[in-house]
Amino acid sequence: MAYIESEKNVSDRLGMYFISVWEDCDIVVAAGIREFRERWANYTVHSKRKDPRSHLKDILSYDKREADKRPIGELILEVIDPKVSAFLNSLPESHFQFFPIPYTNIAHSPLPRSNDKFTSTESVLSCSPIKYGSKFKEDTPITNLVMVMGIKNAHDVIKQQLRRFEKTEHQYRPIDLKFQATVDNLLELLWQLHLTPTRFK
C-alpha cells in the first residue's frame, strides 16, 4: 500500500516553501502546485535580509548567492502554466470570463502598474495590455499576468475577479466550488511568491 503524505507532514517538511492544496481544487492544477512546492527552493532567490515570513517560524533567509538559483518564472512556465491553461480551457464561458486574461477579458480594463523590480515590463502603460497581445501565449496564463503587472498586482486582479464571480455567478454547484477552490489556491501561490524575495525572470 502506497504511503500518502498528509498536508501537515508536507508542511513540516517543506517549511517556508509549503503551499497548501485546497480540497476542491482541480486535480490537474493541484498536481502542478504539489510539484511546484517540492521544487521551489531551487528557484527562489532570497535577499540577504530576513525573510518577511520568518517571524512565523523563526526561519532566516538563506545566504545562497543569487547566481546559484534560477528564476522562478522558469518553474511557473514548466509546471503551473500548462495545468492552469488546461483548467481554463475546460471551463464553460460563464466561468472562464472571471479569470483575467490580458489579451481577452481584461483588455478594456485598467491594469495596475507593476511596482515589482524583477520584470522587464515596469514601463508598460497600465491601460494598454492589448499592445502586448502578440507576446502572450494561451498556454501561459499566469506568466502573461505577471509579465504585465507583477506578482502582487496579478494576485489582486485575480482576487477581484473571483470576488465578482462569488457575487454574481456562484450557486454552489460542483463547477462553482471547483472554480473557487482552484483560483483561491492560485491566489495562495502568488501571495507566497509575493512575500518571498523572488526573481521572476
Number of helices: 7
In the predicted model, the low-confidence regions spanning at least 5 consecutive residues are: 47-64, 107-135
Mean pLDDT: 77
Q: Can you give the helix content as a percent range? A: 40-55%
Q: Report how far apart the termini are.
A: 41 Å
Estimated radius of gyration: 17 Å
What would you call the shape?
A: globular
Count of DSSP E strands?
Answer: 0
In quaternary terms, these chains amount to: single chain
Please indicate the percent range of residues in DSSP E strands (runs of 2 or more): under 5%
Order of helices and strands: HHHHHHH
Largest sheet: none
User: Structural class per helix/strand content?
Assistant: mainly alpha
Protein name: GIY-YIG nuclease family protein
Summarize the structure.
The chain has helices at 7-14, 27-39, 54-57, 72-89, 93-96, 141-168, 174-195. By secondary structure, it is an all-alpha fold. The longest helix is centred in the last third of the chain and has 28 residues, at 141-168.
Give the helix/strand layout.
Layout: H1 7-14, H2 27-39, H3 54-57, H4 72-89, H5 93-96, H6 141-168, H7 174-195
Helix pairs in contact: 2-4, 6-7
Task: Provide an overview of this structure.
It contains seven helices and no strands. The chain is 48% helix and 0% strand. The model is unreliable at 47-64 and 107-135 (pLDDT under 50). It has helices at 7-14, 27-39, 54-57, 72-89, 93-96, 141-168, 174-195. With 201 residues, it is an all-alpha fold. The protein has a domain at 29-38 and 77-195. The protein starts with 6 loop residues before the first helix and ends in a 6-residue tail after the last helix. The longest helix is centred in the C-terminal third of the chain and has 28 residues, at 141-168. This is GIY-YIG nuclease family protein. It comes from Escherichia coli.
